């Protein structure tokens, strides 16, 4: 006899959905989380704060309105950290209320504290007073997430040299900043601070940023970031970061030295498994704190599951939610369908990027014949109305059966627009549907019809020359 049928360690997106899914199936479910971290990293230091910060930046700087009202347009001339933090705190507070309400409504027990394994079925929950309570569970889901990796060679002080958590608590908007690492998190923050007027230098040891994205889209983003005075140092590695007075000096292995008010180090994420005492449950984690799982998110110990960032790629809030739901269903003995292969990627840079499916490079490498259809926001009435002349949508279409192979969007609303293409692809649809569909006018969604017609016209031109079709 166990205290709970399913106990979840961590209340982030994966943990929430796992606990609620189990509760919906009539199981006794519980979540273990620290008092000040309900919602996990996603709500408190990661996805929600950073995306809310982005919205605050776009609004207060008036960046998206400057094509209509001029380059000097501002909602507020002197933007402070307090201005940015007010909106972030409001959203975080409301989201925590929503999560607490959902757990309560579904009769999920919330245990406040830090959990660790005492054995495979027993969890010790240490509260703020230092008292540890023991609880047992038939099944356990590990959803503890990750924390920013901090190399030993870098002296973090959370003021001058910061990671992606500490950057949310700066006491002022820096005039200059170095961002080490051109991954998703690094580029998102680089673009936000550049929009605020900070002169940003991005240092990346690889030769390009966001290597998994469409090259044309990345080049468009890079152009706009340079327009915001971002300097890129590709193929460069950091030798040292030295704090100097009120700033820091970033020394590159090539000998270059870059002074700045603030250095943000974005060196990947580390799984939060060190405090779990995994070995007492018969589990291990790799050097990055990640736990290995099978197709049903089971660990090496069959009754213990792991979901979300702690299991590694793709480490997205959206995929973590689905992993949690599927893991709970499997743990409860319910029929489980595999997660769909089509998972959209959203990158909240300024401007934003989103895509689903394959890239041109991947299709070319695999020798898959395809045609490209492009629509540019400046050709759409809606693009003119909102003042976005740079946005674009690109469709990759099979030359053989006209199926959609990939959708890539850059500009306003990219992370929303991509789901139209995702749905068509998921249903096995072809470009013909988009050609014949009627979209509301004026909308950005109309870009699908324009891009589809572009691809179809190109394929028709080839057919005329070759006598095919």
From TrEMBL:
Its EC number is 1.6.1.1. The keyword Flavoprotein applies. It is an enzyme of class 1 (oxidoreductase). It comes from the Bacteria. It is found in: Cytoplasm. The keyword NAD applies. Keywords: Cytoplasm, FAD, Flavoprotein, NAD, NADP, Oxidoreductase. Residues 4-324 form the FAD/NAD(P)-binding domain. Its cofactor is FAD. Residues 344-451 form the Pyridine nucleotide-disulphide oxidoreductase dimerisation domain. Pfam families: Pyr_redox_2, Pyr_redox_dim. Belongs to the class-I pyridine nucleotide-disulfide oxidoreductase family. Conversion of NADPH, generated by peripheral catabolic pathways, to NADH, which can enter the respiratory chain for energy generation. This is NAD(P)(+) transhydrogenase (Si-specific). It comes from Actinocorallia aurantiaca.
């Amino acid at each position: 006899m166990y205290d709970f049928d399913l106990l979840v360690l961590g209340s982030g997106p994966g943990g929430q959905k796992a606990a609620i899914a189990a509760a919906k199936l009539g199981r006794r479910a519980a979540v273990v989380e620290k008092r000040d971290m309900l919602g996990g990293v996603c709500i408190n230091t990661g996805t929600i704060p950073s995306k809310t910060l982005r919205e605050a930046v776009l609004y207060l700087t008036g960046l998206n309105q400057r094509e209509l009202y001029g380059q000097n347009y501002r909602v507020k001339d002197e933007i402070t950290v307090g201005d940015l933090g007010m909106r972030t705190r409001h959203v975080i507070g409301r989201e925590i209320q929503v999560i607490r309400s959902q757990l309560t409504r579904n009769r999920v027990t919330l245990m406040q504290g830090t959990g660790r394994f005492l054995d495979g079925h027993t969890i010790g929950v240490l509260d703020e007073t230092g008292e540890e309570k023991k609880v047992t569970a038939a099944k356990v889901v590990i959803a503890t997430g990750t924390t920013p990796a901090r190399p030993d060679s870098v002296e973090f002080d959370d003021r001058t040299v910061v990671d992606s958590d500490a950057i949310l608590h700066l006491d002022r908007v820096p005039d200059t900043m170095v961002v080490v690492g051109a991954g998703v998190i690094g580029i998102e923050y680089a673009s936000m601070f550049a929009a605020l007027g900070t002169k940003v230098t991005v240092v990346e040891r690889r030769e390009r940023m966001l290597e998994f994205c469409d090259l044309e889209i990345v080049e468009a983003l890079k152009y706009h970031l340079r327009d915001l005075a971002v300097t890129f140092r590709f193929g460069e590695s950091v030798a040292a970061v030295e704090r100097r007075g009120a700033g820091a000096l970033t020394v590159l292995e090539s000998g270059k030295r870059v002074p700045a008010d603030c250095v943000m180090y974005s060196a990947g994420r580390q799984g939060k498994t060190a405090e779990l005492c995994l070995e007492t449950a018969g589990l291990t984690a790799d050097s990055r704190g990640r736990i290995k799982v099978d197709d049903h998110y089971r660990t090496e110990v069959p009754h213990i599951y792991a979901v979300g960032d702690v299991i590694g790629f793709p480490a997205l809030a959206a995929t973590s939610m689905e992993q949690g739901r599927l893991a709970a269903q499997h743990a409860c003995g319910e029929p489980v369908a595999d997660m769909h292969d089509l998972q959209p990627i959203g990158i909240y840079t300024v401007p934003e990027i989103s895509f689903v499916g394959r890239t041109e490079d991947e299709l070319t490498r695999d020798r898959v014949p395809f045609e490209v259809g492009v629509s540019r926001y400046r050709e759409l009435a809606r693009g003119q109305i909102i003042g976005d002349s740079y946005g674009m949508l690109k469709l990759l279409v099979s030359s053989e059966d006209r199926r959609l192979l990939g959708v890539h969007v850059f500009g306003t609303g990219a992370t929303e627009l991509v789901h139209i293409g995702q749905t068509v692809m998921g249903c096995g649809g072809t470009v013909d549907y988009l050609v014949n569909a009627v979209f509301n006018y004026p909308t950005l969604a109309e870009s699908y019809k324009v891009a589809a017609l572009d691809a179809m016209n190109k394929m028709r031109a080839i057919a005329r020359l070759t006598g095919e079709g």
